[in-house]
Amino acid sequence: MKTPAYIALEGLEGCGKSTHTTRLGQHLNAVITREPGGTRIGTELRAILANPDNVEMDRRTEALLMAADRAQHMAEVIAPALERGQHVVSDRSIYSTLAYQGYGRQLGTTDLLAISQWALRDRLPDIVIYIDVPTDVLNERLAKRDLDRFEREGADFFARIAQGFSELRQADPERWIVIDGTMPKDDVEADIHTKVLARLSQ
């Protein structure tokens, strides 16, 4: 892959995405960003989405706010960076919407895929890194921090999301790289770097 790459890190809450997004982005001298919240507008949307007081939020409202964030993110951050010749490394992407809202909120993926692709102008991530961590390990990690609206959901919600990510990977395996997130942090970092650099050299 000789052109600038759009790389996304995915996984359940507490898997280490944010840490490894930063580390990989620094290693590649890439634009480091996140969804939701990679723009000023996105930051405001993220605050609404994550606020644990917003218990009345309809699941379709949630999905559409995610799509709005994604449209602004592509227009303001991702597309311009790629056009400048820079790699982009993002903490979450369209696949979080498909897994969280499609499977977790049980909205299905058909409409969400159409809305998200429209928001992205059909520009999907070139590489998706999935940091795989068992839910019992994630629960231990989440117990150590203040929880947002998503992190407060129950085990069934996250089981559906994990199943969603599994099915998304199986449907498009060439796009995905699976990383064992139970390894020590530095080993996870090294594995990500090795596999991403190998993919970029193709």
Shape: globular
Q: Which class do the helix and strand fractions yield? A: alpha/beta
Tell me the CATH superfamily.
P-loop containing nucleotide triphosphate hydrolases
**What is the beta-strand fraction?**
5-15%
Level-2 CATH architecture: 3-Layer(aba) Sandwich
Averaging pLDDT over every residue, what do you get? Answer: 93
Tell how many strands the DSSP assignment holds.
Answer: 5
Topology (SSEs and partners):
Blueprint: E1 6-10, H1 17-28, E2 31-34, H2 40-50, H3 59-83, E3 88-91, H4 94-104, H5 110-119, E4 127-132, H6 135-142, H7 155-171, E5 176-180, H8 185-200
Parallel strand pairs: 1-3, 1-4, 2-3, 4-5
Helix pairs in contact: 1-8, 2-3, 3-5, 4-5, 4-7
Q: How would you portray this structure in words?
A:
The protein has helices at 17-28, 40-50, 59-83, 94-104, 110-119, 135-142, 155-171, 185-200, and strands spanning 6-10, 31-34, 88-91, 127-132, 176-180. The chain is an alpha/beta fold and 202 residues long. It has one domain (6-200): Rossmann fold. The chain has a 5-stranded parallel beta sheet, sandwiched between helices. The radius of gyration is 16 Å and the shape is globular. It is an enzyme of class 2 (transferase). Its EC number is 2.7.4.9.
